[in-house]
Design brief:
- By secondary structure, this protein is α/β, with parallel strands linked by helices.
- The protein has one domain: Purple Acid Phosphatase, chain A, domain 2.
- It is built from nine helices and 19 strands.
- It is globular, with a radius of gyration of 19 Å.
């Protein structure tokens, strides 16, 4: 009976334009693969869970989603460096030893954005070690910050998808033209779709701010097709503007920065990009897959699980609270598949 209901639900969804090729991208939120140095020896810390459960534990419960797409992208919030001596003076410094990169490489994570307020927690030394660790592990990364200016292009056949990431304050105060140029350069390199990952907003605020909207809108005007947001640590809303989609905040995912759960809901935002037989970009469809950042209610066990029932409805309610249009509902075993967004007319 359940399968029959899912079938009828899918039949009611808008049918996207006939496509020769589809590429499925999954985005997850803030991931701190490590934690604070002062907590490292405690069993309840992220490091304690590495010692107890190994590298593959953390993303284990969401493999049914991220192991079956073309590409999964996480926001890496923290550093991979083996020592703490280069820590800068701030409230929270997040790091994991360099071998913690195996948490990502063994878990169907293929790429990370690294433009956020924790990328420089251990100064230029920490950023340098992180970048070299990612590259040695074969993980793609992209970031524009004090330590690096790097975009990335994912290729599948003749299709090219460009990625660029920047923190809002970095863009606002110094580098508006840089972001504009990076997006234009990705187009010049033949990218059919450009995705901008932004880091900005107010932590634990359930509604996005005007300054997030400002940066997202600017990126769309520069030529981006999809904007993915991080930093608030909680889920925020979705917007669709002239054939382009903005997701303001994906919330925390595997977040080693908090031993206690401050944000109980998260989601995987999965985009299916459609292309014609000739390789022309036709548009995209978003599936919001509700999840919880911890399998335990009372404390963070750093292992996200897919949400069902009332939990899934609570996830959707939080996103709806910050979304101006009515989202399509969650269906068990499927997700919340939204309307197909047709690519803008060229």
């Amino acid at each position: 009976m359940r399968k029959l209901l899912i079938f009828f639900f899918l039949c009611l969804l808008p049918v996207c334009a006939a496509a020769e090729e589809q590429i499925v991208l999954t985005f997850v939120g803030d991931c701190t693969i490590g934690g604070e140095d002062r907590l490292r020896e405690f069993d309840y810390s992220f490091d304690g869970y590495v010692r107890q459960h190994g590298y593959d534990y953390f993303f284990e419960k969401v493999q049914s989603v991220i192991a079956n797409d073309d590409l999964t992208i996480a926001n890496l919030e923290g550093c991979f460096i083996n020592y703490e001596s280069s820590a800068v003076e701030k409230t929270y410094n997040f790091r994991g030893p360099k071998d913690y990169v195996k948490v990502l490489t063994g878990s169907s994570i293929e790429a990370v954005s690294y433009a956020n307020n924790h990328a420089m927690d251990y100064g230029y030394d920490g950023a340098k070690h992180t970048i070299s660790t990612l590259e040695e592990a074969g993980l793609a990364w992209f970031a524009t910050n004090e330590a690096a200016e790097k975009t990335w292009i994912y290729e599948k056949g003749d299709i090219r998808i460009g990625f660029v990431a920047m923190e809002r304050t970095y863009w606002y105060y110094r580098h508006r033209n840089l972001l504009k140029g990076q997006i234009a350069d990705l187009r010049t390199q033949g990218c059919d779709v450009v995705i901008f990952v932004m880091h900005g907003g107010e932590e634990y605020r359930p509604r996005h701010l005007r300054n997030q909207e400002q940066l997202a809108t600017a990126a769309l005007e520069y030529g981006a097709d999809i904007v993915i947001g991080h930093h608030p640590h909680v889920l925020q809303g979705v917007d669709v503007v002239d054939g382009k989609t903005i997701c303001y905040s994906l919330g925390n995912f595997v977040f080693g920065g908090n031993a206690k759960i401050r944000a109980p809901y998260t989601a995987l935002f999965q985009f299916t990009l459609s292309f014609s037989e000739e390789g022309e970009y036709l548009g995209h469809q978003l599936n919001i897959i509700p999840a919880l950042p911890s399998g335990e209610r009372e404390f963070n066990n750093y292992q996200p699980v897919l949400a069902t029932g009332k939990d899934a409805e609570a996830v959707m309610s939080q996103i709806q609270h910050d979304t101006d249009f009515k989202l399509r509902p969650f269906v068990e075993g499927v997700g919340a598949v939204q309307d197909f967004v047709k690519a803008p007319t060229k």
